Amino acid sequence: MEEYGSYNWNQQGNEPQNNTPMEPKKPHGKNNKNAAKWAKKIGAVALSAVLFGGVAGGVFTGVTYATGATAKAKATQTESDSSQQTTTTKLQTATASTSTASSTSSGSMDVTSIVQSAMPSIVAITNKSVQEVQNYFSMFSRGGGTQEQEVESQGSGIIIGQNDSELLIATNNHVVEGADTLSVCFADDNACEATVKGTDSDNDLAVIAVKLSDISDDTMSKIKIAEIGDSNQLQVGEQVVAIGNALGYGQSVTTGIVSAVNRQLEDSNSENGFIQTDAAINPGNSGGALLNMQGQVIGINSAKLASTEVEGMGYAIPVSTASPIFEDLMNRQTRTKVSSDQAAALGIKGQTVDSSIAEAYGIPQGVYVAEIEQGSAAEKAGITAGSVITKFDDTTIESMDDLKSCLEYYAAGETVDLVVKIADNGSYVEKTLTITLDKADTSTTTQDGQQGQTQPGASGQDGNLQGSILK
Q1: Whole-number Å distance between alpha carbons of 351 and 404
Q2: What is the pTM of this model?
Q3: DSSP characters over 16-52
Q4: pLDDT computed for residue 333 by the predictor
Q5: Contact in structure between 261 and 308 (CB atoms under 8 Å)
Q6: What pLDDT is attached to residue 152?
Q7: Which of 8-12, 143-147, 366-370, 389-393 has the lowest mean pLDDT?
Q8: Is 204 part of the annotated catalytic residue set?
Q9: Pick the catalytic residue: 102, 153, 200, 204?
Q10: Known catalytic residue at 286
């Protein structure tokens, strides 16, 4: 081989012979041929390396491209699949870490900060309804007499969601029951008309809806959806804040501690326990928010459960109990009262079975069917005399008034499911029946419990308010 610089490599190329600088020797003869062979081998190896590198690079690029394309295809498919799913409105719940923090002092805000954060989520609700009241002049003459007057009641609500066309508000069922018209007043004092989305009378919960098209952009910028916490994390002694439309004066704030959790109350229809607090919950607070010190809703206040005989004992429905009910109600079809020419009927005569009758006679609470009209929708659906109607299209029925109120939102010809309990050898068997509603006779108002609608325009003889009821 050639000798370069200060190293003289032997023909085997193993190690240097000496360190003396030398001039390169001129290759010739056999050595020249060997050098040519080695040059060819080295060139072949180099060419192979280049080709191998090119192929390997191509394979790597191809695999990378294929992997990326597959991932992209999977992502596109996932997006496509998700876009085809039905959109469901859900509550804006707190993360696990922030919810757990509610049981500790870490991350807590002061009351002022909580109020500033939560107030845009709280609304005042006004319920206007027409009720029959005793005629004052009839007290001085023979026979009884009633007249219809418009009654206004006040309560509270919490903004819990929004869909494509509606703002959704949670409240108590007793705040909105029997409403002819509902209005919601937001944090900026602007009011909009609302409609009932769904109710659960057993748990005293309801969701109402306001059309987004009825809410100004300015109002939308000043309100927000409440953050839902975890009431299961509450501890006795933990500080809480209550916000609501107390006494109908507008939003007010009280504070206190959790006095008890899972408190059972005899006067409630709910089988679930309640949060007891010494924060003042007054008439008008019903449907308002009970908040932890992270500003999260952990209870729905209910003045209905309060007593005027004691102080420092307010109650709230735990939000962990209410959340699944709210998610069901907020995804139901929004209904408005139908016109008189569309009014529907079942074709029965019935009687309310309240809790006292149910307990005394062992009859399920609801509407006892005393008589079935021949050829009516009830007869065609298989409803029999002696059975008890307990649900109408997923709405719990506890009285004739509940049943009549439901029918106000359904037109003749619509098909709905009824849950009835049928007597069977001393017990009652639950059965679901599908019924297509009859057209109601609106010419008269029935007084014996027969299903029908009152004559249109029979509301409010003098148009005056009887007064304001706080709930």
Answers
A1: 12
A2: 0.68
A3: B------PPPPP-THHHHHHHHHHHHHHHHHHHHHHH
A4: 86
A5: no
A6: 87
A7: 8-12
A8: yes
A9: 204
A10: yes
